[in-house]
Amino acid sequence: MSINSFGHLFRVTTWGESHGPALGATVDGCPPGVPIDEAGLQHWLDRRKPGQNKYTTQRREPDQVRILSGVFEGQTTGTPIQLMIENTDQRSKDYSDIKDKFRPGHADITYWQKYGIRDYRGGGRSSARETAARVAAGGLARAVLATLLPELRITGYMVQIGPHRIDRARFDAAQIEENPFWVPDAQAATDWAEYLDGLRKSGNSVGAMIEVTASGLPAGLGAPVYGKLDTDLASAMMSINAVKGVEIGEGMAAAELTGEANADEIFMGEDGNPVYSSNHAGGILGGISTGQDIIVRFAVKPTSSILKPRQTITRAGEATEIITKGRHDPCVGIRAVPVAEAMMACVLLDHYLLHRGQIGHNRGAIG
Amino acid sequence: MSINSFGHLFRVTTWGESHGPALGATVDGCPPGVPIDEAGLQHWLDRRKPGQNKYTTQRREPDQVRILSGVFEGQTTGTPIQLMIENTDQRSKDYSDIKDKFRPGHADITYWQKYGIRDYRGGGRSSARETAARVAAGGLARAVLATLLPELRITGYMVQIGPHRIDRARFDAAQIEENPFWVPDAQAATDWAEYLDGLRKSGNSVGAMIEVTASGLPAGLGAPVYGKLDTDLASAMMSINAVKGVEIGEGMAAAELTGEANADEIFMGEDGNPVYSSNHAGGILGGISTGQDIIVRFAVKPTSSILKPRQTITRAGEATEIITKGRHDPCVGIRAVPVAEAMMACVLLDHYLLHRGQIGHNRGAIG
Amino acid sequence: MSINSFGHLFRVTTWGESHGPALGATVDGCPPGVPIDEAGLQHWLDRRKPGQNKYTTQRREPDQVRILSGVFEGQTTGTPIQLMIENTDQRSKDYSDIKDKFRPGHADITYWQKYGIRDYRGGGRSSARETAARVAAGGLARAVLATLLPELRITGYMVQIGPHRIDRARFDAAQIEENPFWVPDAQAATDWAEYLDGLRKSGNSVGAMIEVTASGLPAGLGAPVYGKLDTDLASAMMSINAVKGVEIGEGMAAAELTGEANADEIFMGEDGNPVYSSNHAGGILGGISTGQDIIVRFAVKPTSSILKPRQTITRAGEATEIITKGRHDPCVGIRAVPVAEAMMACVLLDHYLLHRGQIGHNRGAIG
Amino acid sequence: MSINSFGHLFRVTTWGESHGPALGATVDGCPPGVPIDEAGLQHWLDRRKPGQNKYTTQRREPDQVRILSGVFEGQTTGTPIQLMIENTDQRSKDYSDIKDKFRPGHADITYWQKYGIRDYRGGGRSSARETAARVAAGGLARAVLATLLPELRITGYMVQIGPHRIDRARFDAAQIEENPFWVPDAQAATDWAEYLDGLRKSGNSVGAMIEVTASGLPAGLGAPVYGKLDTDLASAMMSINAVKGVEIGEGMAAAELTGEANADEIFMGEDGNPVYSSNHAGGILGGISTGQDIIVRFAVKPTSSILKPRQTITRAGEATEIITKGRHDPCVGIRAVPVAEAMMACVLLDHYLLHRGQIGHNRGAIG
């Protein structure tokens, strides 16, 4: 059991290594009759695609997704959907430097200790390249959600890079697509560009914090007590490469609050649905959606591959030094934005399908 | 599918409501031949038991665990183990105040919206009382781990309560069992007692942060990429009532670090195993254990049941005010400590069993 | 992973041994709002209850089922339902005869070889007593089905006992509840009684074949290709103690047929639904229900505990002889009838819930 | 949840349609360090390949398998293995005849009723072509088993075709690979050829019975009570297209036996392991292997596509007649032999991995 799958009803299994022939996602449980085509999925892959600006890895691949099964005459059929992305830029470079050395901060040493064999080319299975498959599956989930929950909006953006946080007072969603950082703050985009240029030149890297929200989600989604909506979101985000922490709503700051300050008081809205005085809960109570915005944040550690020499050991146990050259992102957090959106889409669809199967779902009317 | 189970091979399903006849855990996948008895499990339940001091709920129950199956002549048999705790203190109190009102911050409204029916007595299934079943299962996991990994130590403690954080310089593990807060800092114990007394008197509550560590875990545990050790720990902790954020190692602070600062450099130890210059990673790389201490932190929101009046609505949609009387913890985070230890034990055992089944596990020798 | 659960959405985990304190079923995924009480479940347990006539084991237990969770004010809440049956007739008999001997045909030797420990009292976990928990879960499934598919009828009956088969020409469903064999043929009931009396007196036992049908099931249920309706039914029936073969529709006899003879031709019925010229398929095509009757048959081997001396070995590897005294059914197949009905109910409900969650289920209208 | 996966630890998900771009198997949980290459897998695919003789479909495809992931430098890495087979012979034939008609005995009508959309080209997902993916996965399972259980031998063969059964007295395993029917009886091979020639010419088809055995399997494999070895084998075989019944050991004939006749008495063998006087049980007691040969039989219904006109309806509900032309096997049972072997290999490996992970597995020594 090596657990390369997630989801309960909308079940995604990703496969493939950084430098193998291809990678992809096998999606089981996609509802039938949903319009889907490769161009629609490609839109999402293009957002994640490397080599688009100087702040992300210079590996250049088209990341072209192909649908190999489960779609007939432009619609899903309810059978498994195979999404494949061929690896085209498998440079026949010299890997001798990392073949027998364990790069600090990478999974090299643990994969070796676990499996006794590792595909060292570009990190193999532990490469962030695996997230391309997630983005493809997320594009599919979005297509399904568009037919089921047309009001739903999923939006990811960066809120912090190293010491620089966004100014919430300047929050402008329209900016997100306008800069290479998906940051909702034009001033931050300028400042961060300068900051990252400096970092990159010095061969260093930096961490980041990303926020993903979903608006338009109905109340009642979530499966207590071990498949809570927040539990599954935490799991989904933590599974992304380099993520070290996940928060819902107030998150870690909840430790500081009093019950009086933290209470989201409840009122009746004009449309006959409950409204809340605030959203400390991040849209989830007892693991079930309230109908408010879902708010998730997560931290990504700095890229471990840096040009600064670090101490490490070889497979033979000898001390050595390593400088990781190659095409690396100075901040892996940037490309985590579309990945996190994809994971959010998959988790929300999965829970919506769980919800639909239930007798009289959302039957607890109020008022 | 309502997902009241967790674990891949050591599979725990909890059941029961706050005020029903009983609650418990059905544990499937426990290895055979492990010595176990009710007294051994009771030890862990007693640590979590309410009513032990003035900082936790005054509900007084013996929380006596019974083993109904899967154990024969003092040893596990490899068949399912049923752990049952009868609810003895089901006060025939008047629930009319909350029967038709939704308590802010509780799952009352979302359970109603999801299921259209809810056992309102004490929160029903969403009550933190469900965690007693986790502690029983965790006790069982510890018994198994004691035979498999005798070096393993799991330790939970509080590191923050409201604005008060522990002083890491005063960290003293020996203090943990000496105060009602499981805080590894004698001075903090005194300060926090005073702080909580004030809060309790004012009818308010407060959040908390808990850290759980595991030392003595071998390298190589964890199932990339969706059953990573950190992914499963994040899921396990987030599933605990009132938890709003989970961190591994540096956690959210990783967003601020540079790659240079974050690198855990690798050396050979004198015993022929790798050692690290630091543990920013919290003992996990690429979802797999490194052999270093596993470090997890999580934040618990303040108890939502407070004596301060809050605005809410009734099932009929009418505006009303609520004051939640009853036997509530001013800081639910305190009793989350033994629960988190139990979840850690279950997750680590589960991953150890996954690991054992693999061919030549831990075969990637170094040196 | 010891896999004491079945079902995808309606998930049943049974637990307990023949002579432990109790046994039961933990049911997760039961829809909310379904009326249920202990008396309703007891009805089904009473049908399976031993000691009701001379053809079944003389162990006499009330097999009283208790609902410990998941039901509030007479309705299911959507949370896990714990069904417990206490073992009251745990005779303090002398087990020394079987403690160290392996009874041929029983799981004694394989449990020992697998687990290295076994609860030898009455077969422990491998006892057919485990099926009481299935019947309780099946009663719950029937209650849910009564609200969802009121037209559905599940009927089990014996069609063969040793060399005696029923005469299909005399098939009379009204007879099923009128004799101790659940045989739809009054003459067979008389003949079989005489036959079994002879067997019982000679200390021998015999096999049986049971048929279970479901009428009123809509078309479209079943999850190809590894959760087909027939696949799940085969698995469910084969999991019952002593079952050695399972058939759908024509079953093993399909090997003899030509395509021409086997074809179930399709016509439009007067009510606008498809009708078929025959039902060789047993109501399932490609793993999905056709709307015709579901027809399943399975064979149960003869009770292995007989009064005839058999050769075996002890745990120490010494040759010995064994006569299994005790309270045994001369034909375990008889009591398999209510168990098979229960399994059918669970599987059909499970697939109905899978079906409901799908977009536009049953949307492929004809005509 | 559309359940295109099977296996607990060695988890196989198949995907793809008869006339889509490709089909394949995503295998998760394959142990690392196992030598594997495409040629090794191809060997098994070639055995199943259509068009090899006049008794199987004349569709001619190379069925070339490609390994897209999970293998590095000739060894499995423990990460998911993607096995892809491109569909090369997708004749641009005219499907208008079956596009709107439901072929009797096929899944056309039920897929339509379930999904409201179906890929009618060659049966789409319900085509027996899906079994090519199973054979690829089975080849992988065999490669792993060869390293873990080198003594294990899995052998499938036909035992009946229409009215013709093999003569057990003439059983000669060496004949199996010598004739197009995988029948262990040279005389039967000759007789059956003549019989099938007649059938084919008349445009008819016929059913078959297949037996699959495994020798060299250790005692102690199987996970009671819902993941029994026989339960999983029944499920695996029943999931194969057109299978209508599955038997273990005596199978359906067990209904006729007395306990005295059915007893497999136990003795100590000269090598210190238990031996049995007979194998009515088919090598499984209580769901766990005894160490004897595993014996499974299953019946395959006659090919539904025949040249005899049959009555059916169109999607519009109009009565019509259908003759299924095309490249069909007169007896689909023939090609089920390698498929059943593949399923047996997957199930046995899966249970062996379950077994290995257990503490002290097979620790219950005898003698």
Structural summary, described in words:
The structure is a homotetramer of 367-residue chains. With 367 residues, chain A is of the alpha+beta class. The first copy, chain A, has eight helices and 18 strands. In chain A, β17 and β18 form a beta hairpin. The relative contact order of chain A is 0.17. At the C-D interface, β1, α3, α6, β11 and α7 of C face β1, α3, α6, β11 and α7 of D. β11 (243-248) of chain A pairs antiparallel with β11 of chain B.
Quick overview of this protein structure:
4 copies of one chain form a homotetramer. By secondary structure, chain A is an alpha+beta fold. Chain A is 25% helix and 21% strand.
Short descriptors:
NADP (chains A, B, C, D); 25% helix; 367 residues; alpha+beta; FAD (chains A, B, C, D); homotetramer; Chorismate synthase (chains A, B, C, D); five-stranded antiparallel β-sheet
Task: Give me the secondary-structure topology.
Four copies of one chain form a homotetramer.
Chain A: E1 5-6, E2 11-16, E3 22-28, H1 38-48, E4 65-67, E5 71-72, E6 75-76, E7 81-86, H2 96-99, H3 108-115, H4 131-148, E8 153-161, E9 164-165, H5 186-201, E10 208-215, H6 229-238, E11 243-248, H7 259-262, E12 266-268, E13 274-276, E14 284-285, E15 288-289, E16 294-300, E17 310-313, E18 319-322, H8 336-356
Helix pairs in contact in A: 1-4, 1-8, 4-8, 6-8
